[in-house]
Structure formats: C-alpha cells, structure tokens
Design brief:
single chain, alpha+beta, 3-stranded antiparallel sheet, 4 helices, transmembrane helix, transmembrane, membrane
C-alpha cells in the first residue's frame, strides 16, 4: 500500500506540473467565434465585417479574426502579402496560427502555421481562402 500511495502522488505531481508549465507556442492573437450552424456564422457580425467563416473538426463553424498586435507587440495580418508590404523587414513575416506576424520581438521558430486553405462563402460552400 505504501508503494501505491507514492505512485499516486507522483502521477498527481506530474499532472499538476504539466498544467502549470503548459504553454501554447502560438503567439498570434486571434479571436474565434464558434457557431452551431453555417448560416449562424455567415449571418454573424464577425463575418459581415469581412472575417472568414470555416468549418471546424468538431462539426461546428468558426469565424476567425486576427487582432492588430500580438502580446509581444508585433503587428499581425491576414495575409503574407499584407505582412510583407507593411513590415519594416519583410523577411521577418511568419505564419502563426491563421494570422501572419511581422516578428520583430517575438519568437518566430516557435510559431506553428495553420493557414486556412478553404473558407465558406455566403451560400455555405467551401471556396479557396484569399485574404482581403
């Protein structure tokens, strides 16, 4: 019984440490509004103000927005072209999540790219994503 209690304590301690030290390497600030139906997403204020709706793996729909800056203060954009035309050093443009970041202060190698390939048009049909 004594060995079992040490095992339980060790597993509990590891679980607590993983929760404390877990971090998400994505540095972009993106807002994701989730909707149950495509029509709800297409009819949302988020989409009507120019932000794309896309299907999620959970069978729901999401409207994606990139904030103007990351927590590090780096500017972010919807497309690589917008980033390169606005960044003081275009070679610093990096895809981060669904946004593009002009990485002057952040950590570019830690940024995973998850660029949208397809979004939904106003009829809920998938179309190739071309940022505006």
């Amino acid at each position: 019984m004594f060995v079992l209690s040490h095992t339980i304590f060790s597993v509990f301690a590891v679980a607590v440490l993983l929760n404390i030290f877990y971090f998400d390497p994505t540095q972009s600030l993106e807002t994701v509004d989730v909707y149950w139906t495509c029509k709800d997403c297409i009819g949302s204020i988020c989409h009507k103000t120019g932000h794309p709706c896309c299907p999620t793996t959970a069978g729901q729909f999401a409207c994606m927005r990139c904030d103007k800056q990351t927590l590090d203060g780096d500017k972010q954009f919807y497309s690589e072209n917008d980033c390169k035309s606005s960044c003081s050093d275009p070679s610093k443009c990096t895809c981060d999540g669904v946004c593009w970041v002009c990485v002057l202060k952040g950590n570019a190698p830690s940024m995973p790219c998850d660029n949208l390939g397809y979004v939904l048009d106003d009829n809920c049909k998938e179309v190739p994503y071309h940022p505006k």
